[in-house]
Amino acid sequence: MTPPTVPPVVPPLVLTVAGSDSGGGAGIQADLKTMLALGTHGMSVLTAVTAQNSRGVQGAWELPVDAVRAQYRSVVDDIGVQAVKTGMLSSAELVETVAELLAGTDAPAVVDPVGVSKHGDALLAASALDSVRGSLLPVATVATPNLDEVAQLTGVRVESDTDLRQAAAAVLEYGPRWVLIKGGHLAGDAVDLLTDGSEQHWLRAPRLDNRHTHGTGCTLASAVACGLAKGQSVPEAVAAAKTYVTGAIASGFPLGGGIGPVDHGWALGRGPRTT
What we know:
alpha/beta, nine-stranded mixed sheet
């Protein structure tokens, strides 16, 4: 007698809408590696192609809005999605298009308002800032700006942990349900603040002696999206993402002649590297 066939289990479905990093450390590549490592099925909508390596961004080419919309509809209308993460959206037209798509999708959205690369290269046109504030942040379940992006969006400059509350309040005024202010650029421990305006969750991790941190922002936002796709609450998803990223930073490795990437596969059984 033939045993019954057990139908395959479909993993949680997560979609990234972001640019490509040809060096493999950030962007779409980092997102998909994170999604695989955390047990989800990653899908992608490419918004831009960059020529990028460990030293910086040498060039960037935005995809047409019609191509971005077609990719999104192709995935969501057929396969479906349980969480969406956005990254590099370089123009106002792209920001407005993606915001409209997110508003029509019944899934949580993690918005990483990418403004500059790890190397200081501009990835968002100044003319797009109003669209991020007025259209993209209002449809975000969680927004995950770093301190440079907070300053770019709100004018608030964070100098210490105590400034994180002011930064969070300023971002929340634009309408996301939750904001995660990433304080990794401050001295001392790596301290982040997650809040919806009433609850506050402080996430702390030791600062690691490893300069190979390319892709941390993309990786964190993708990890949060993975948690939400699994049905976790926002605080649960963010706490798990913080743990994952801390481990990835600990295992970051040198690549090329500049800043190397975090190790997205560390949680799959490879121990911390010696760099």
